[in-house]
Structure formats: structure tokens, C-alpha cells
Amino acid sequence: MRILGLDLSTSCVGYCILESTDRSIVELGHISLKNVEGLFNKVDDIVPKVAALLVGHNISKCFIEEPVQMFTMGMSSAHTILTLAKFNALVSYHVRNQLTDANTFFVKPTEARKTCGLVMTTKAKSGGMSQKEQTYSQLTSPTGLLSGVSFPLTKTGKPRPENFDRADAYVVAYHGAVKTK
């Protein structure tokens, strides 16, 4: 059985497909929406791409990271939170309609990170890293779940921004695979 994990965002959608039996990665990637203007155009762009993943990989269950639900000082506004929630709902509805038996589930990021054994700290204690950055850092460390996976880097050797969305999608898929047993 194959699991799809999605980290939905209006700028970049991270996705991860895992075999549920051994949690091996089938595909780990992202779909950029940076050049697509408007909420409905973004939905129109992403839905067929996700549908192709569902059908092309014979996905049985899809786990989707819940959108942010509270303000973060200097990071989110009511407009941003509402836009992300609308986008998440529209894409999730389409995914649910693609899968039989309504095998689409929402996952809280904190719960998924805990399943992966990740420990988040405050920005001050982590050297200024966001939770997305901490997730990526822990997963790609020598003992992390993604230690052997290659991620693209910038010219200066830093992780590309989409790597964080890929890592979050992996965490969501991994959580789904553990819960599916």
C-alpha cells in the first residue's frame, strides 16, 4: 500500500510517497506555485498534478498537513491564515474525491513530528531556526530518517527553500505509514 503525504502551501506544495510496509521512499518532491497568480488558478494548477500522483502511484491513503491555525508574531496575518485554509480545503476536497473510501486524513504538524521522533525548540534555543528548518535539519542529520537522501542546495551550499516543504511532506507521509500499519 502506498501513502501520499502533502504539505500544502500557496507557493510550494511538498509531496512524499512512501511504501507503508517498510516506509521506503517512492518519490519525494515539490510542485512550485510561485508563478501562478490567484487562489483559484493555484488550485486549478495543483489539482491535476496531485491527481496524477494519486493515479500514477496507485495511492491508497493521503495524509495532509493541517494548515496553520494561529498567529505567529511577525509571520502570519489573518489574511495569510485564511488564504492557506481555503487553499488547503479546496485541494483536500479534490484529493478526497480522487480516492475511494474517503482515505484522506488531516495531520497536525506537531503530532507528525512526534511520530518521527523530532523535538522542536524555540527559535532562540535553536539558533534562530524555524520549525520547518529544525525539521529539515534533524531529518537530514547523520542519524536522521533522511540521512541518505540528496537535497538540492543553493549556490552558497544552503538548503533550497523547497527542501523544507519536502521534509514536511515526508514527516506527514511517515506519520501516515506508522498509523496505517
Tally of extended strands?
A: 5
Q: pLDDT below 50 for ≥5 consecutive residues: which ranges?
A: none
| Strand order across the largest sheet | 3-2-1-4-5
- What is the gyration radius calculated from CA atoms? 16 Å
Whole-number average pLDDT?
91
CATH architecture field: 2-Layer Sandwich
CATH class membership:
Alpha Beta
| Shape call | globular
Write down the secondary-structure element order.
EEEHEHEHHH
> How far apart are the termini?
10 Å
Let me know the largest β-sheet: 5 strands, mixed
Helix-residue proportion: 40-55%
Number of helical runs? 5
CATH superfamily: Ribonuclease H-like superfamily/Ribonuclease H
Helix/strand structural class: alpha/beta
Counted up, domains total 1
Task: Give your account of this protein's structure.
By secondary structure, the chain is of the alpha/beta class. It has one domain: Nucleotidyltransferase, domain 5, CATH 3.30.420.10. 42% of the residues lie in helices and 18% in strands. It contains 5 helices and 5 strands. A 5-stranded mixed β-sheet has the order 3-2-1-4-5, sandwiched between helices. Helix 2 links the parallel strand 4 and strand 5 (104-107). Helix 3 (109-115) packs across helix 5 and helix 4 (131-140) packs across helix 5. The longest helix has 21 residues, at 78-98. It is globular and about 40 Å long.
